Predict the 3D structure of the following.
Amino acid sequence: MIVELPSRARIAGTVLLPGGRLGRAIVHVDAGRISALELDPSPALVRSLRRDAPGAIVGSDEEVLAPAFIDVHCHGAGGGDVLGGPAALERMAATLLRHGVGAVVATVSTAPIAQLMSVARMLDGVRRAVVDDAARPPGAELLGLHLEGPALSPVRSGGHDPLAFAQPADLTRSQLDDPLAWQMVRLVTLAPELEGGLDLVRQLSVAGIVVSIGHTDASMDIATAAYVAGARSTTHLFNGMPPLRARDPGPIGAALASAPFVELITDGIHVDSGLLAPLARAIGDERLLLVSDALPLAGSRLRSVLTPGSSARVEGGRAVHPDGTLAGSLLLLDGMVAEAVRSGISLPAALRAVTENPARLLGLAGRGRLEPGASALLVVVSTRGRLRRVLRPVPSAA
């Protein structure tokens, strides 16, 4: 449920504070931004808010206020995706906001590079249109594009189309030849063991594009070298990579040891629920990213969907490709938070992993933290991590 906040508002209750801890506070909102944060307000002050004029909200003891979520790995929602054009992207963005996601890096699977660059230019046009058209329905902000491929390992392709795979040198040339289209690319998943892979990591990192290691068969040494070269994240840990072995740790060992950030899909399908809490502790609260890896099937009544080079369908409560291999997720980020908490990950850690940490990964200012100057697009979740409301500020008319 989306609740519109007046231009000026005060919200009292338990809040997610920067650094991932819970505390009591009054959050002051002014024209869509947080203007002040009063920590540890007295009971008398909170009681006075209950009697105040419109614009004062007091949360219950079973609720936590947090920034809207940020999803850095989402292929679609509500039947829409990044490949379907402006109308499909609008459906995706609107569905995501209803599920608490305030900003998203729209993810596209492996496709020919020319098609990916066409998608990037289209996304730029859509983002400009949203900014210029205040009458459009509210939706998650499109932060840019996440290219999950095409420089991936052919032996760890998952549901990606091997016929569309490219070498790192092909992406290197594309980034140099089409810099305007690449301005919309915020994140690239690649396999660093491919020839020229570490050079591409360096080039993209210098250009300000986040590199994530995924769909890879790299050794621990090569994956570690990729983090040293500038890679910042790890795409859906345990999926699209060899298993962790004591004498051959591979990319999982490198991620746990030295990756700045590590993605987890916490639907209990991509990684067993019993492993999620121990993994989160091993990764650490400051490095953990919860992502949806959601397909357009998520948040919709669709039972099947076309994806580049393949198709996915719902079967036995999960999304699978025609050959039966696991596809993306059917849960959006609010569901991932709830499942993470149910599996034993603490609520503050789960919330930090969808707010402050992805904002740090992307270098976003004014998002992911409850602090003065930050966006006042907020969510209210239960102490069990279930989304209850999205608080959307409505600026006063000029």
